[in-house]
Write a structure and sequence with these properties.
Blueprint (H helix, E strand, L loop, with lengths): L2 E2 L73 E3 L2 E3 L4 E4 L2 E4 L6 E2 L2 E2 L3 E3 L2 E7 L5 E6 L3 E6 L6 E6 L6 E5 L5 E6 L3 E6 L4 E6 L6 E4 L5 E6 L3 E6 L4 E6 L6 E4 L5 E6 L3 E6 L4 E6 L6 E4 L5 E6 L3 E6 L4 E6 L6 E4 L5 E7 L2 E6 L11 E6 L6 E4 L6 E6 L4 E5 L4 E6 L2
Antiparallel strand pairs: 1-3, 2-3, 4-5, 6-7, 8-9, 9-36, 10-11, 11-12, 12-13, 14-15, 15-16, 16-17, 18-19, 19-20, 20-21, 22-23, 23-24, 24-25, 26-27, 27-28, 28-29, 30-31, 31-32, 32-33, 34-35, 35-36
């Protein structure tokens, strides 16, 4: 059974025009990447998430559950847990449920320029990149960082691939995680210990913060920027247009990823395997989970916080107000990045187990739990970081030096 989220259902060549996204890890009230293009959108590490509790009933015409966030499903499909599901053996293609075809040239009737598997089209959008790492998307473009050595670069290309544009070249600073909003790109530099910004269309990079010891995860909301410093042990914030940087949490044990909602900032810490939160306005931190070996990848919605434990090969969830963590998937293999979109959690299993790191997969599970779905496999993948839009999942392949997309998601 094929699962595809969200409207509108205009998929051409297994890829549709995407709506605008704030990334990295995304569009969340609260990056990492679908909310309406309104004040409900907040970004973190490549993820996009609708935290409004579902679309308006008028937007859900044609779906079974009008408040479940599917939008208008194609004829014959039903809305299940925020996802439009076609009958068994069919996939969404061109706004309709079509018979699933799995040969090299067709995905459910949609042309596929890449590899077709289980009704999804996996396409290599860019090759020849040196250690591509962070990734973000908006309505027109893909943005990524690359090269842990020199020169570390920030790049851009159209959503459907094409010519890559160099936006910034920064020497041996390792541009790291990246997010975007309607006007600007923001990124951290792990070795440069900085937080940077520049216009989406290019220009002169601007340093927003210095002396940030191994600046790593990054997230934005409508007014502020948030990041972690791994060796600095802090969770930081500052206005998007610059100003004083303030520590929301200090003395953390290697904080990694960060996410925000309307009231709190959330982060994972690799050193002590914790997931924590603290008020945006300042105040004491709260520990939401412990014993999470190499806690990474982070997302938040209106009810829960989600992350991966790379050491334990699990995808996890805990209530936003605290409680007992639950396991969404115990079948991951070295999970790394995680994003949340319209009731589904997506993550990357890094390609372990072979010398070329090419057996990685992109996986998916309902935010409420249930069976896992393989979104992409057998694609010579070593996926690091993910981003999503309304139709597709995008990722960077570190060892392979490529950027890839799978449609539908």
């Amino acid at each position: 059974m094929s699962v595809v989220e969200g409207a509108p259902w205009s998929i051409a060549a297994c890829a549709a025009a995407a709506v605008a996204a704030c990334d990295s890890g995304g569009n969340v009230v609260g990056g990492d990447a679908g909310v309406e293009a309104s004040i409900d959108a907040i970004a973190f590490d490549g993820a996009r998430e609708d935290v409004s509790g579902g679309r308006d009933a008028s937007d859900d015409a044609g779906s079974v559950a009008e408040d479940s966030g599917c939008g208008s499903c194609p004829a014959g499909a039903t809305c299940q847990a925020g996802a439009c599901e076609c009958p068994s053996g069919q996939v969404v293609c061109g706004g309709a449920c079509a018979a699933e075809v799995t040969d090299a040239g067709s995905c459910g009737g949609c042309p596929c320029d890449g590899m077709c598997s289980a009704g999804r089209c996996v396409v290599t959008l860019q090759t020849g990149q040196t250690e591509p790492y962070g990734i973000a998307v908006d309505g027109t473009s893909i943005y990524w960082t690359a090269n842990s050595a020199s020169p570390g670069v920030v790049m851009k290309m159209p959503l459907d691939g094409g010519t890559a544009t160099l936006l910034a070249s920064e020497g041996a600073v390792w541009p790291h995680h990246i997010v975007v909003d309607a006007t600007n790109i923001y990124w951290t530099t792990l070795y440069g210990n900085t937080v940077m910004t520049m216009p989406l269309g290019g220009g002169t990079p601007v340093t927003l913060a210095t002396d940030q010891m191994e600046a790593h995860g990054i997230a934005i909301d409508l007014t502020n920027l948030y990041w972690t410093t791994v060796t600095g042990g802090t969770v930081m914030t500052m206005p998007l247009d610059g100003g004083a940087a303030t520590a929301l949490a200090s003395n953390q044990d290697e904080p990694m990823q960060v996410a925000v909602d309307a009231t709190n900032v959330y982060w994972t810490s690799k050193g002590d395997g914790t997931v924590k939160k603290a008020p945006l306005a300042g105040g004491p931190e709260t520990t939401l989970a412990t014993g999470q070996g190499y806690a990474d990848g982070l997302a938040v919605d209106a009810t829960s916080v989600y992350w991966v434990s790379a050491d334990q090969n699990t995808v996890m969830r805990v209530p936003i107000e605290g409680g007992s963590p639950g396991t969404l998937s115990a079948s991951a293999t070295a999970p790394y990045s995680l994003v949340l979109d319209r009731g589904s959690v997506y993550w990357a299993n890094y390609g372990l187990g072979d010398t070329d790191f090419e057996n990685g997969t992109i996986m998916k599970v309902s935010a409420e739990g249930g069976p896992t779905t393989t979104v992409a496999a057998g694609c010579a993948c070593d996926p690091y970081n993910l981003a999503v839009d309304d139709t597709s999942v995008y990722w960077t392949n570190w060892t392979g030096g490529t950027l890839m997309r799978v449609t539908p998601k």
